[in-house]
């Protein structure tokens, strides 16, 4: 299952040859289009809220909308956007809706583009990678905010092939032109569309090539930080030498509780929700200008919608274990599991009733659920992710004098955080946010004024955060496998086992739950030969895939104790032991004032 790395250099842009799908058919996940009606759990959302989360645009621009709808697969047998084809990559179908008139998958949005020749673009939003379905005995259960099992590598590889096949086949392009224009085009119209399409195709295929890992990552994983940094430092900045391999895939995290945590990302490097969401938008094909001095840092990000998304997620609860479909929880065993968890696991994983940050470190007296940074050398898990964070060096080009104190190079993580911050600052200026709105959009993550500085400063990660993995609360963890930051452990039972007892290889892509070991069915004994042929074989011997570490507690748990902790993790919710949800225990928003409007203006990037 080797990804072929041959590529052509054409017009200064790297293009993948049209026939190169790069993945052997027998080894890629092939998700069937689901026919069983989906069932929803009580996560605090109604249908209207779900539709907003699934399909609200945020500023992503993958392809002109009419082009995407008209594009055929590389084989030419069907439209690329057909629900059956999109289901092959693991994207979930929700059906037509007011915000989804053309039946695109969850997370694929109709994006308005007032500054573009095209009226609408198809884009991606966070719900594409943070919504999932789990199955049990033919029943399909929706997990809002859960990590998707979508195969992003397969998706972009086949999208690239489809885009190029359309350009290389005159008959196919004729069908494409007729569908885009809505009538049989004249030769002049076809030629004009082909010229525009050729320019776009060169840019998109090069962009997708930069995002393609040396080895397929499989379902549910993506090297987001390297992909985003490549987009910022290569595409936006125009410096090809900044390109680095996409080689450190991590699992999509779950996002319930995320608005209430002190830090997010697998490495605890993000505190501001709006900065995190701007970075996410740029990572899913959002546009930002880093070269034109007259339009510097202007972007396609939709600030208001990103903030609304965060507010909606703040109301999302973790999924309750559906006993009707997955089996009853053994409450007696769960009680024993909680005792074991509190003794062996809670030192890292904050659980209800939650511990909160101190009021004194926040300018508004607000508190957030504590997470725990654990150095990668201590936890012992695969270090490819943190190594890529600290080892990357990026040329700053024309941004050196503006953002990097005239330095010609800077650490890649600093380039990422600083340019996302500059893009956010420009978006805030364009949106004319008030000081209070700036505090609100940043989630009130500000230190109190101190010394000679009367202005609250936004929380910033420590240097040590770049070499740490964040231990988070585990409510709803049953719905989020595979486990560890790189998805290298198939179930909770193995995660609680010594590393030498864990699977060396296992299959990823099945949605069928394993209610005993708490993960998805992934072994030869659980899957038929036909099922295995349609799934992704995860090999823990490969770089970035290692399943080492997390050997806690020091004295290994007995199999019986592992099952007890599993039973507790099925049953625990945010409101356990505190009478209300974690979200509602957070202090109400407080306005900051130091006596003058001018001095209350926050600083988002203090030098």
UniProtKB/TrEMBL annotation:
InterPro entries: Cyt_c-like_dom (IPR009056), Cyt_c-like_dom_sf (IPR036909), CytoC_perox (IPR047758), Cytochrome_c_Peroxidase/MauG (IPR051395). GO terms for molecular function: cytochrome-c peroxidase activity; electron transfer activity; heme binding; metal ion binding. PROSITE patterns: CYTC (PS51007). Keywords: Heme, Iron, Metal-binding, Signal. Residues 332-573 form the Cytochrome c domain. Residues 576-607 are annotated as: Disordered. Residues 593-607 have a biased composition (Polar residues). Residues 1-32 form the signal peptide. It comes from the Bacteria. Coiled coil: none annotated. Gene3D superfamilies: Cytochrome c-like domain (1.10.760.10). PANTHER family: BLR7738 PROTEIN, CYTOCHROME C PEROXIDASE-RELATED. This is Pseudouridine synthase, RluD. It comes from Candidatus Nitrotoga fabula.
